[in-house]
């Protein structure tokens, strides 16, 4: 057994809107080891993005506990959550989520500007390195609207990895890409995994899921299946 990085116990998430109460997640218990590559699948509305938001400390659960690297992060302040998130977690979204009035360099730098441990020249070096990694260093001064979808997602990957996070959370990262650009993003994720990153990727695509080590299926806010991917079983 490796080191447990993420441990969820009996996580619940309820959204209250007007008179409606939505139980987005119920009884989620889950342990993810450092260095694992996990896929999360299930029908639209089953709670995948909610789970990723909780894992990424973008939101808090309604019940249950979350331990990250052995620390209980269930009840910490918003400020503490942001601090951990900015240092430890990189996000990649289906719709890229770049900021349209910031150029490429500024978009990638943005999460690093919240880090008190980095000065401007350190940040610039990290930004350049991340953009070289995704082959976008020649587009520093371009704005998102001047880039193709594939290029925007590569910039978003650079933004996610620039701070050298221990966890990468990807919510349908290839959902808006053609097959060639999707493959480029999948290969980047695989390289990051090979270098030791822990990755949780939400995907609709069974073939993408098979490229992870482990496949979790969610239905109606509950884990209904959690097993090694068949590629792992063949390899073993
Ligand atoms: P998925 O990503 O699997 O499509 P989500 O996690 O986005 O599903 O949503 C799970 C359920 O929670 C859905 O019923 C959705 O409508 C609801 N939900 C998600 N976010 C909110 C929110 N901020 N307020 C109210 N309901 C929400
Ligand atoms: Mg979603």
From TrEMBL:
Keyword set includes S-adenosyl-L-methionine: no
GO cellular component, one term: transmembrane transporter complex
UniProt keyword terms in alphabetical order: ATP-binding, Nucleotide-binding, Transport
Any GO MF annotation of the entry: transmembrane transporter activity
Coiled-coil region(s): none
Gene3D superfamilies (alphabetical): P-loop containing nucleotide triphosphate hydrolases (3.40.50.300)
Residue span(s) of domain ABC transporter: 6-236
Keyword Nucleotide-binding among UniProt keywords: yes
PANTHER family, sorted: CELL DIVISION ATP-BINDING PROTEIN FTSE (PTHR42798:SF6), LIPOPROTEIN-RELEASING SYSTEM ATP-BINDING PROTEIN LOLD (PTHR42798)
Family: Belongs to the ABC transporter superfamily. Macrolide exporter (TC 3.A.1.122) family.
UniProt protein name: ABC transporter ATP-binding protein
Organism expressing this protein natively: Aliikangiella coralliicola
């Amino acid at each position: 057994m490796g080191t447990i990085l993420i441990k969820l116990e009996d996580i619940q998430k309820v959204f209250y809107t007007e008179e409606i109460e939505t139980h987005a997640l119920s009884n989620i218990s889950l342990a993810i080891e450092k260095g694992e590559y996990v896929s999360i699948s299930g029908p639209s509305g089953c709670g995948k993005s909610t789970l990723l938001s909780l894992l990424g400390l973008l939101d808090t659960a309604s019940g249950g506990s979350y331990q990250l690297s052995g620390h209980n992060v269930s009840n910490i302040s918003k400020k503490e959550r942001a601090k951990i998130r900015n240092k430890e977690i990189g996000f990649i979204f289906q719709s890229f989520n770049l900021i349209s009035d910031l150029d490429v360099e500024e978009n990638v730098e943005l999460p690093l500007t919240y880090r008190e441990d980095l000065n401007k020249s350190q940040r610039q070096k990290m930004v350049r390195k991340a953009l070289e990694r995704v082959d976008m260093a020649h587009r520093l001064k371009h704005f998102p609207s001047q880039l193709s979808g594939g290029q925007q997602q590569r910039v978003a990957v650079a933004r996610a990895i620039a701070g050298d996070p221990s966890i990468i959370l990807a919510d349908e990262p290839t959902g808006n890409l053609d097959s060639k650009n999707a493959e480029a993003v999948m290969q980047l994720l695989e390289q990051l995994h090979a270098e030791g990153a822990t990755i949780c990727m939400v995907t609709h695509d069974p073939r993408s899921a098979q490229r992870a080590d482990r496949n979790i299926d969610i239905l109606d806010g509950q884990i209904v299946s959690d097993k090694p991917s068949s590629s792992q079983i063949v390899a073993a």
